[in-house]
Amino acid sequence: MRGSRNNGAVHKRRVFFTVCVTVLMLSMLSIYYSSFFSSRIQQKHSIPRGGGSSVENNDWDSTSKALTIRSMKPDSEDVAVEDDEKHDLAVGLSLKEERLDRDENEERPEMDEPDAAGDESKDDGGIEEVTTKTFPVCESKYSEIIPCLDQPTQKKLKMKLNHSVMEHFERHCPPSEHRLKCLIPPPPNYQVPIRWPASRDEVWQANIPHSFLAYNKSDQHWMEIRGDKALFPGGGTHFHDGADKYIANLGKMLREEDSDLSRKGKIRTVLDVGCGVASFGAFLLPLNIIAMSLAPNDVHQNQIQFALERGIPSMLGVLGTKRLPYPSKSFDLAHCSRCRIDWHKREGILLLEVDRLLRPGGYFAWSSPAAYRENEADRQEWAAMTTLVKNMCWTEAAKEGQTVIWQKPLTSQCYEEREPGTHPPLCSSVEDPDAAWDLPMKTCITPLTKYNEDSLEPWPQRLNAPSPRLQDLGIVEKSYETDTYVWQERVQYYWKQLSENGQIAANSVRNIMDMNAHLGGFAAALKDEEVWIMNVISPSLKTLEIVYDRGLIGTYHDWCESFSTYPRTYDLLHAWNVFSDVDSRGCSVEDLLLEMDRVIRPLGIVIVRDSASMVNRVTKYLKALRWDHWSKDEFEILEDSLAHGDEKILMVRKRQWQPVEIL
């Protein structure tokens, strides 16, 4: 019995020991998991503020990979800048300084597709939750980036470019893996631009913090720095007395009454090559002449950026190896004032490109030392130029002092009477003179067609008169007239909505881009506004020639690539079916949105007109882009011949913000 009791006691002690060990292990596990979940909860509720909202690495590769995927909340490192006293829109638009914090209560969701605007899911209440990306802010060194004209990128990618023929100033777009995936920041102290027409003569120096032109061209009166503004006296290398007097003298040379260079509306579109800060183009505007002011991003730092800040039509470009992105017979006059171009060299290829762009009977005004100096080098240049233009059948319309004006022939008679073997030859009839996107220039003369100077009405009648080139495109006059009417109705509706909702005021919009201009109807509808429009046409279409025949200006461009302009240069972007087109060609909608954000000014307006599904997709990006969707109501779609069943309109405004580190 004693042994039995001892065995029972041992058994009880073993059971008790086992229970104690089990309880101890469970207690330890409980403590461990309690600590683990507590730390996870703390991590969840203490996401670092500002993480990922600015790019720290210096190269393009890491910058491209800096895109973070988060819940849809604004970044904390960007704040809206309050500037009510000087720059409110006087229509109830008030900028409130705000800190944009991330939501501290949501984890970062994962996105399945890098191009998707967001994932839609339903919570327990059945409410749709949309999560989308946020974009970091690019480093400040990219505040003036022009991706396809960026020479540091050319060097990084080891592009072998011929500097002697200006290849390094032509477009060379980075591959997709080198594209910036971040928002371009404004420079420190950026202010809403001064409104037109005051902006013609003065801009905020802080918006373009460069003084090279003011000091290096001080004797030529290009630009002056006075206080917090850059001033533009209207001078130039060859017009010390002002662009207005220089222009009047050109009109006098053409023997026009009152020295009217427009020749009663016959000269409407002008190409100004090597335009400087575009004062020539600025002082053409009162004559109802519109110039495409063109210059590269060369040693004359930021000249086109200043031109656009002034509100003057202009774009970056160079006469190098490729055709300029305009169709043939686009300009009534081309102008070069000390533009540092050797026209007679390389078999005259650059002057032949100008010839392609001039209308029959068009003029080329050249102000150069070679026109009036008597030293040996200038005499040789003058002899070479006169020989070249004679072989091109140009005639001297006028010559006075430093300036000569040549005229292109109206007919082909001179070409037919040239001696056999005369250079430059005529281009082959199979060459398309209107194809001008990423194509090499030709050392031949573009043949004339049946359309000459007299085929176009003078301005302003030519704005709505059917172009004689419509029939070449298979467009009947009735369709053209309908298109004009439809866009008048649409633009009136846009302006009505913007005005009634306090989004525009007098002269608050100046630089406008129509990203898919078609026949130029959008621009034509704005003829009575103090605005100018860059009409952009896809290279696959040929309607840009109609735009120019209307007396408007524009360019070919493929929206799968970045546009040739500086950041913050347009007040309004109009995108009609642009997103659907880009998406259908396998290009990135997200990249296009980032490009539009680069181009549009702070407080600028974006109008998207596209399919409902595409507009909904774009809408998911608005907070990530810091664009305000000021109207929550859907806009009415007016029934017209250009509308399709599920079309939708989105109007938004870009916020004004600054990275925290520069405030």
From TrEMBL:
Pfam families: Methyltransf_29 (PF03141). One of its GO terms (cellular component) is membrane. It is a single-pass membrane protein; Single-pass type II membrane protein. The chain crosses the membrane at residues 15-34, 270-295. It comes from Riccia sorocarpa. One of its GO terms (biological process) is methylation. InterPro entries: Put_SAM_MeTrfase, SAM-dependent_MTases_sf. Keywords: Glycoprotein, Membrane, Methyltransferase, Signal-anchor, Transferase, Transmembrane, Transmembrane helix. Residues 84-102 have a biased composition (Basic and acidic residues). GO terms for molecular function: methyltransferase activity. It is found in: Endomembrane system; Membrane. Residues 66-129 are annotated as: Disordered. Residues 103-118 have a biased composition (Acidic residues). The keyword Methyltransferase applies. Its EC number is 2.1.1.-. Belongs to the methyltransferase superfamily. This is Methyltransferase.
